[in-house]
Amino acid sequence: MEDDGKVGILTLNRPGVLNAMTVEMGEAFESQISNLPDSTRCLVLTGAGRAFSAGGDLEFLYARANDTPHNNTQEMLRFYARFLCLRNVKVPVISAINGAAVGAGLCLAMATDIRITYSECNLQFPFASLGLHPGMGATFFLPRVAGYETATRLLLTGESITGAKAKELGMVSECTERQDQVVSKALEVARMIARNPATGIETCLKTLRCQQDSDVNGLQAALMREADAQASCYATEDLMNRLVATTKAIAERKAAKMK
After folding, report:
1. Interatomic CA distance for residues 111 and 246, integer angstroms
2. Each residue of 57-106: pLDDT tens digit?
3. Helix residue ranges, H only, 15-85
4. E-strand stretches of 85-153
5. By the 8 A CB rule, do 146 and 88 touch?
């Protein structure tokens, strides 16, 4: 966590593995969120290195594939909660999507209040290609941000889109031309917000979030459904086969780069 006056900067910091999300990262994330300085008026979330986040760590996914459905439902609910605690922050959260945002990493960005990226950024919900139901609130936030049809297409195909396409679909509010401009643009917007009186910002933000979270089929119900569905998928042979194939493909790409 960095402090830029009234703006906090929280960085997902596992650049060697594209900021893949683990239980340990989630615990550190939750700790930072719960200990925001009282002076904070806006929070910028970004990733270290060349990615925002590649999503769930492969070792975590293998562990789930070797656990029971009952345990996995509870594990996934806890996993979601560690990162989605940002929904309880009283100040706006801006995602500075400074590099690839994939799977749970993109889901985390969708849970924030404002998203900024760059035109050529790679964004993807690859759950379907793994044989896995989406999680981390994907089925809740994406339809509300981008609409039912866009959410259905992206979640069922697993296709990759650019930041420019995400802007066109309403998933992000702004695209910069270059990758190195994303964080500075997010900070610019954050400082604009932070200059305003705190009470007005906090109350408006609470009202806006309530319009999402208090739906009849609200966020908690969606997370419960996602956790149950992911637990069922983790028990399938299809998922294990896709995990093995993904691991092999990653290893081959690393080997090719070393030649």
Report:
1. 26
2. 999 999 999 999 999 999 999 999 999 999 999 999 999 999 999 999 99
3. 23-34, 58-65, 69-84
4. 93-96, 100-102, 114-118, 122-124
5. no
